[in-house]
Amino acid sequence: MTDAIVAEGLVKRYGSVVALNGLDLRVEEGTIMGLLGPNGAGKTTAVRVFTTLLDADEGRATVAGLDVRKNANELRKSIGLSGQYAAVDDNLTGFENLDMVGRLYHLGRGRSRERARELLARFDLEDAADRPVKGYSGGMRRRLDLAGALVAKPSVLFLDEPTTGLDPRSRLGMWDVIEELVKGGTTVLLTTQYLEEADRLADQIAVIDRGRVIAEGTADQLKDQVGGERLELSVATSQELATARSALADLAVGPMESDERQHHLTMPITGGSTVLMEAIRRMDAESVKVLDIGLRRPTLDDVFLTLTGHHAEEEEK
Amino acid sequence: MKLLQALADGSVVAKRNLIKIKRVPDLLVFSTAAPIMFVLLFAYVFGGSIEIPGMDYQEFLMAGIFAQTVLFGATITGSGLAEDITKGIIDRFRSLPMARSAVLVGRTTSDLVNNALVVVIMMITGLIVGWRIHSSPLEALAAVGILLLFAYAFSWAMAWIGLLVRSPEVFNNASFIFIFPITYIANTFVQAEKLPSVLRHIAEWNPVSAVTLAARELFGNTSPLQPAPDVWPLQHPVLASLGWVVVFLLIFVPLANYQYKRAVAR
């Protein structure tokens, strides 16, 4: 087994701000690694180091076996980058954008054009191919940007927040496209703020916070660490809250948390809807008026809270 | 081989920028509208009060207008690069196995083509308001050549500033502070000799004055009735202009390249 991406002790500082604080990462060839973290965690900085846009202050990194600093030019031939802003030229048509990228990968005129048409067809942009990108929707621009990253059939692909800012429908479309694409055996490093996205697309997830990887594993492993499913319940009075707490105590598989002011109860459970139904039956038997009750899956914020002790949005700059 | 590749990459980038001129013709319209208004303003409003010994003000004015036009035209290099950074296009370029110099070479080259177009439009405007070329076609061509060479060198300075500030809005404000004095504290619209002493020294050594006077002489728009300049750059304006071109390129090509290698979005 070879690693397509290796990072050892990467450090990058901007003045007093430490963007990368000893980042270690290994991505096995042919797999999809999801780099999960909030804004400002260092995801984009890491991608920029891997794609030779930025030199790290300390540490070393190799991509496709090539050192990002010493073999930068060679390395650029085997990578593709699709950033978070859809780096396409508004004034060029979709075809012209891809053809330009092909020429800059030195594919040669004929091959470059052929490849551009091929990708436009594959990403469902054939009809818009000869219109300026200015008139494209957000989802179309992202697809074109992703197509640009694939022009040279790179062996390692970097997708920096490929769905940030997209509406839910375009996001689903983008996920289909990415899933399709990785069936071909490309190694992918995907950064995202959404656990759901990493969950669906990535084989392995590395949770990154303050420039370091703080947890690594499959989506299920991470969720187990967070504590899995929870049952949440809201009632009208503190008296009812106390009743609910004692009636449900034996269903909890860990400590229950109750919020006296909101009259809100959270408890870790296993068993899903069976437990939910049992809880509703007991509330009914105790004549507790339930305002809201439901199951909740762990969110990115739960992962963060559990792993770091602080909420994800506190990190936003 | 490597040089050929770099040139090919540069031409791909230049082509991309030139497509923009074709797709957004407003850009060319607006980059000529302002200088045309200047021509009309100076030729018909201010011109009447400005006396140039031995000639009509229109004859004197046009070389200054050309210099101003190409300088303003060269600022597109900076705002274009700043815009490409903001949009992440520079990130994409820098992740490609293309020649490192291609983006800057392509950008400055396409802006040179744009400037050449604008100069042609301005020359036609000049002919309409009564400006005439009194020299040989070869000399006139040399005048255009010097204007464009200087604009090209100036483009590299703008490239550096654009990559430094990384925002088209900031660039437009920043370049204005720089462009305004260099364009107007010069012999572009008035005779440098008539300026008050401190400004006069600045104007006499201003590269734009040398370029303007070089163009003026090569177009045959000077008169023996005008006082002979007493500083070297204005006694040898062609040589001085070429000297400034070399100096600008020597300083700003390396600076712009250095800044490009460090340029990332945000």
Automatic annotation (TrEMBL), chain A:
PROSITE patterns: ABC_TRANSPORTER_1, ABC_TRANSPORTER_2. Keywords: Antibiotic resistance, ATP-binding, Cell membrane, Membrane, Nucleotide-binding, Translocase, Transport. GO terms for cellular component: plasma membrane. Its main location: membrane. It comes from the Bacteria. Pfam families: ABC_tran. It is a peripheral membrane protein. Coiled coil: none annotated. Residues 5-235 form the ABC transporter domain. Belongs to the ABC transporter superfamily. Drug exporter-1 (DrugE1) (TC 3.A.1.105) family. This is ABC transporter. It is found in: Cell membrane. InterPro entries: AAA+_ATPase, ABC_transporter-like_ATP-bd, ABC_transporter-like_CS, ABC_transporter_ATP-binding, DrrA, P-loop_NTPase. It comes from Lentzea aerocolonigenes. One of its GO terms (molecular function) is ATP hydrolysis activity. GO terms for biological process: daunorubicin transport; doxorubicin transport; response to antibiotic.
TrEMBL record, chain B:
It is found in: Cell membrane; Membrane. GO terms for cellular component: ATP-binding cassette (ABC) transporter complex. Residues 26-263 form the ABC transmembrane type-2 domain. It is a multi-pass membrane protein. It comes from the Bacteria. One of its GO terms (biological process) is response to antibiotic. Keywords: Antibiotic resistance, Cell membrane, Membrane, Transmembrane, Transmembrane helix, Transport. The chain crosses the membrane at residues 27-48, 60-82, 112-134, 140-163, 170-190, 238-258. GO terms for molecular function: ABC-type transporter activity. InterPro entries: ABC2_TM, ABC2_TM_bact-type, ABC_2_transport, Nod_factor_ABC_transporter. Signal peptide: none annotated. Coiled coil: none annotated. Pfam families: ABC2_membrane. Belongs to the ABC-2 integral membrane protein family. This is Transport permease protein. It comes from Lentzea aerocolonigenes (Lechevalieria aerocolonigenes).
